[in-house]
Structure formats: C-alpha cells, structure tokens
Design brief:
Number of helices: 9
Strand content: 15-25%
Largest sheet: 8 strands, mixed
Helix content: 25-40%
CATH topology: Aminopeptidase
Protein name: Peptidase
Keywords: Hydrolase, Metal-binding, Zinc
Organism: Pseudoxanthomonas gei
Radius of gyration: 19 Å
Structural class: alpha/beta
Pfam families: AstE_AspA_cat
CATH architecture: 3-Layer(aba) Sandwich
CATH superfamily: Zn peptidases
Oligomer: single chain
Family: Belongs to the peptidase M14 family.
Number of strands: 10
Order of helices and strands: HHEEEHEHHEHEHEEEHEH
Strand order of the largest sheet: 1-2-4-3-5-10-6-9
C-alpha cells in the first residue's frame, strides 16, 4: 500500500530545493552535546589507546573533530578489525556501545588484532538526533568515490591506508520508531516521492552482505546477542523492513552498491547491527550491551576461524 504522509516541509511530489533544505536545517536544533557525551569519553581512553583526529566536519559555525581510537600495540602482521558507530547520529547505542566496548573489552584483544574504532561518525547528527547530515544527506548511503557526505569521505580517508588488511567490520546501528514517524516521511518529502509505510521490527537483527554472505558468522553474532536482548522475528511476509529473512534475525543488502558503511573496506566479514531501543522489552543499557556483545562475538568468531 502507498499512502500520502504529510511532512511539514516541501510540496508533495516535488523534490526539495535550496529553500526547503534551509527550512529543514533551521529546525534541526542541538539536543545533546557531542563534546560532553563522546569527546570527553574518548579523551579518557588516551591513557590506554592511541587516539587520532582523522577529520573535521565544517558546517559554517558548526565544526566537529572526528576521532578514531586505535590499538596501542599495533602490529602489521595482525588482522585489522574496524568498528563504527553513529553513522546515523540519532542511533545512540551505536555510539555508546562502541565506547563501552573500548572501555570494558578492547584490552582483551591486545596482541591478537589491530583495533580501529570510530565511535561517532556523524557528530552533527548526533547532537540533533538526526539521521542525515546538515545537507540532508544520509551518510550511510554515501560511502562511494566522490562522496557528497563529509562524514563518509572522512571515514574512507581514515581506512584507506589499511583497508586491504581489514578482516572484520562491525557497523553499529539502531532501528527506531522514529524511522517510521519521521525519517521515512522526510525522505519521501525530500525526494518528491510517495511515502510507503512499513512496520518497525521489535528486536535485534543483522544486515549481511548479499554479495559476500557469511551465514555462519552472522548466526554466531545472533546467538551471542540473544543472551542480552530479544531477536526480531520475521513479519507475516517473512521479512524485516521489506527484506526477506534469510536466517533468524538476518537480512541481506548489497552493501557496496547501496554505498553502506559496512562495505567501506573489502573485509571478508561484515555486519550491520540493528538494535530496537523503543521496545518495551529493552532498556538503553540492554541496547548498549547488545552492541558490545555483537562486537565481541564477531571478533571471537573471526579469531577462531583464523586460528
């Protein structure tokens, strides 16, 4: 079914121009602090890890340093593991889960893998609890050459020197009720297309790469997360957010073709986590813990395969 959904910016059927973009941007006011919530925690990690500023977002009066946290005992012969959070700034547990993993568990892998963690790829959007960046561009559709998104381009520059050595990339995301109430209607309005409603899955799920599927790996992550929070069931059509469920809690996308973050390298093992923070069966702490469990299970799996 296709329905018209009212969105307060633009004219139905007509894509946004500069005036609509300016109107949208003016409504995006900061609701929380990247410096207090993220940068302050990153600074505390400097005692145990190498911390580098890998870029800086420039949106006029709004500028944001971008930070990556790396293993201090970097050894070229070890496999690289990349963890990213906050590609969509409003997906809070992706950011907090990445930081929690660093603080509580990253040391367990010292001397076994080279870790690179970018905990908040999109700080402008983090502060405004937004999906898009300041140009109304989705960074998680922009990981491609000549990217239109500063956030995506900066991350691609960060990983370029070691991208061929990345064995595993875990990209931490959420699916929220606002995906349906705000962000999908906004997308339809921005692009001048009809809004097509869909259901929000209740629970955790993963997105595998349809062009490089790793079913056993995905199931190992699902099994670990199931001990922390519930796994999203398929809907009546056997789908999650419009994609067929290929195994418990797993769907597939063509990651590179869509310009998704999880394919920013050619890693053999990739997964995108999707936590559901609006469930009555999950707390913010559970959502953060689910992200941590996913990262740990993913690393444990690839180390076991390598060993």
């Amino acid at each position: 079914m296709t329905t018209e959904a009212f969105y307060p910016i633009g004219t139905p059927g007509i894509a946004w121009g500069p005036a609509e973009l300016a109107q949208w941007r003016a409504l995006q006011l900061p609701q929380r602090s990247y410096l207090s919530d993220v940068v302050a925690l990153v600074e505390r990690l400097r005692e145990r890890f190498d911390v580098a500023e890998y870029g800086r977002l420039d949106y006029g009066v709004d500028t944001y340093p971008l930070f990556a946290v790396r293993s201090r005992q970097w050894r070229d012969e070890l496999p690289c593991v990349l963890v990213t959070g906050g590609v969509h700034g409003y997906e809070t547990s992706g950011v907090m889960g990445a930081l929690q993993f660093l603080d509580q568990h990253a040391a367990d892998y010292a001397g076994r893998v080279n870790l690179v963690v970018a905990p908040c790829v999109s700080p402008w959007a983090y502060e405004r609890v937004q999906r898009w960046n300041a140009e109304a561009i989705d960074p998680n559709r922009s990981f491609r050459p000549d990217s239109p998104a500063q956030e995506s381009a900066a991350l691609m520059r960060l990983v370029e020197p070691f991208r061929d050595r990345v064995l595993l990339h875990v990209d931490l995301h959420e699916t929220t009720d606002t995906d349906e109430s705000e962000f999908r209607p906004a997308l339809a309005a921005r692009d001048g297309i009809a809004y097509e409603p869909d259901a929000i899955p209740d629970g955790f799920y993963l997105v595998d790469d349809s062009e490089n599927p790793q079913p056993a790996f995905q199931q190992a992550v699902i099994a670990a997360v199931a001990k922390v929070t519930h796994i999203a069931p398929a809907d009546a059509r056997g789908e999650i957010i419009g994609s067929p469920v290929v195994a418990e809690g797993v769907i597939q996308y063509p990651l590179k073709r869509l310009g998704l973050c999880a394919r920013v390298t050619d890693a053999r093992y990739t997964t995108t986590t999707e936590v559901y923070p609006d469930s009555p069966r999950a707390t913010p702490a559970q959502c953060n813990a689910a992200q941590v469990a996913a990262v740990r299970a993913a690393i444990d799996y690839v180390l076991a395969q390598a060993g």
